[in-house]
Write a structure and sequence with these properties.
The protein is of the alpha+beta class. The chain has a domain of about 180 residues: endopeptidase fold (from Nostoc punctiforme), CATH 3.90.1720. The protein is about 40% helix and about 15% strand. It has a 6-stranded antiparallel β-sheet. Helix 1 packs across helix 3 and helix 2 crosses helix 3. It is rod-shaped. The model has no long low-confidence stretch (mean pLDDT about 90).
């Protein structure tokens, strides 16, 4: 998952959240709905940076900042945004000052809208076609067109020629990509790799046990019970002596052959044709 995909995934999970009439049920998507600017996004950003993030207050910008904090942590989010601010005019200026302001959108951009007084609303670009830009925005509504105080998180779309679009701020997601996997995802992947290593080790040991031929050197508890009488008979008759140290070196295949022969009476005859 890329950095941009991660931000978009988090935003999609917030679609349908409704602003609250007071500070209750902030973490319920639809409970205690109202229009007094109480949201979990505003509260959490205010708790992080009360000097620049007012609460309760209009929260479209706080929503975008919150997404980056959730995705990358507050320090990386601060770096991407060149500092937090819930004032859309100031947020747009930060991008301009750092050469990150564009007129052609890309997924992951922060889209800014204007009215007759200037920049007034913002959201996240999630998809772009030749004609249309698709967004997820906080403090908007599902109604067509720019809604800059609608009280919910909603998917929206606009013609790229829409004159209400002021421009696009583009966080430098490369600073995230350079880190490879995000730390949380890396930890999760590392854990999965460790679990896989354990399973591979167990499987290797099982395969080793299955594929390695068992060798029976002595008539003891390691030798299958069904073979012991036959092997003892062969030793008693001097038909099976073993090496200089008495090791028999018998495999499962040999045990089966000897037992079959024994059951056929092979070892009950003397070599001169008489019965032993």
């Amino acid at each position: 998952m890329t950095a941009i995909e991660k931000v978009i995934s988090i935003a999609e999970g917030e679609v349908g959240y409704l602003e609250k009439k007071n500070g209750n049920d902030l973490y319920s998507k639809t409970g205690n709905a109202g229009f007094n600017n109480y949201t979990k996004y505003g509260l959490e950003m205010h708790q992080l940076y009360p000097a620049v993030m007012d609460y309760p207050a209009p929260w479209c910008d706080a929503f975008f900042d919150w997404l980056l904090v959730q995705a990358f942590g507050k320090d990386k989010a601060w770096e991407l945004l060149h500092g937090f601010d819930d004032y859309t005019v100031e947020s747009a200026d930060k991008y301009r000052k750092h050469g990150e302001w564009f007129s052609v959108p890309k997924a992951g951009d922060q889209i800014f809208f204007r009215n007759n007084s200037g920049i007034c609303h913002t959201g996240l670009v999630i998809k772009v076609t030749d004609t249309t830009v698709y967004t997820i925005e906080g403090n908007t509504s599902s109604a067509e067109g720019v809604v800059d105080n609608g009280g919910c998180v909603s998917r929206k779309s606009y013609a790229r020629t829409n004159t209400r679009i002021a421009g696009y701020g583009r966080p430098n997601y490369a600073i995230i990509e350079e880190d490879g996997l995000m730390s949380k995802e890396y930890d999760e992947l590392d854990k999965k790799i460790a679990e896989l290593d354990d399973k591979v080790g167990e499987l290797t040991e099982t395969v080793k046990q299955v594929t390695e031929k068992m060798v029976y050197d002595y008539i003891d508890e390691n030798m299958p019970g069904w073979a012991r009488p036959t092997i003892q008979k062969m030793k008693d008759k001097g038909l099976l002596l073993g090496d200089e140290e008495g090791r028999l070196g018998l495999t499962d295949e040999l045990l089966r052959i000897f037992v079959v022969n024994d059951r056929a009476g092979v070892y009950d005859h003397r070599w001169d044709g008489g019965q032993s």
